[in-house]
Amino acid sequence: MLKRNWPELANYLQVTDHKGNTLWQQVEQIYLEHGQTVRPLAKDLFNAFSIPLTQVKVVIVGQDPYASDHAHGLAFSSAMDRDIPKSLQNIFLALKNDFGEEYQPHVKGKANLQPWVEQGVLLLNTRLTVEIGCPLNPLHDIWQEFINLAFNLLAQKSHLVYLLWGKHAQSFASHVNAQLNLILKAPHPSPLSAYRGFFTCGCFKQTNQYLLEIGQSTILW
């Protein structure tokens, strides 16, 4: 999937570092030594890239995967229908603010955002792995250059919408040409910060308005 949809990223996995190790070897080692506690599961690691680069219309930038079985490779999305993460609940509340109290999110089950991906939304965490019980484990800092390359590839496109929620996501604004794309910033949907303006940011409605203006189909959120 990665090789077909994002060949440059697939090739980067095989580039050796100063120690002679490839990124893929480091990833394999993490799963070999910590597989019981690493999330997402290895089979879901590159789910965000199931959408080809050529089809991306919107980029939502997350940070770490959920340090639980909710993680399945898509930022903010959950593989489970119970105990929906608070950040995702807040995203659903923001959708109701944008489209009306009766609005029902277009998801698979109750919390899987795969239908968004299928419409052109890249749900990109900036670290692709995390460890249950030890979310700040530096082992998972290996993704920085891989993610930078992903942003460089996205920069070859124009008229994308970037949803940057929170300071961490907004630090990636420097990768984006604001004259050729739309950048929408808002507080992070976490319960710790959503009250600062996330619910009323209007990001989803603004995204669809922009897509209409440039002749693209809108997202059924």
TrEMBL record:
EC number: 3.2.2.27
Record's catalysed reaction(s): Hydrolyzes single-stranded DNA or mismatched double-stranded DNA and polynucleotides, releasing free uracil
GO MF entry, a single one: uracil DNA N-glycosylase activity
SUPFAM superfamilies attached to this UniProt entry: Uracil-DNA glycosylase-like (SSF52141)
Coiled coil stretches, renumbered: none
CDD domains from the UniProt entry: UDG-F1-like
Any one Gene Ontology BP term: base-excision repair, AP site formation via deaminated base removal
Active site: D64 (proton acceptor)
Highest taxon in the source lineage: Bacteria
Record domain Uracil-DNA glycosylase-like: where: 49-211
Keyword terms of this UniProt record: DNA damage, DNA repair, Hydrolase
Chain's role: Excises uracil residues from the DNA which can arise as a result of misincorporation of dUMP residues by DNA polymerase or due to deamination of cytosine.
Sequence similarity: Belongs to the uracil-DNA glycosylase (UDG) superfamily. UNG family.
Protein name as it appears in the record: Uracil-DNA glycosylase
Organism: Psittacicella hinzii
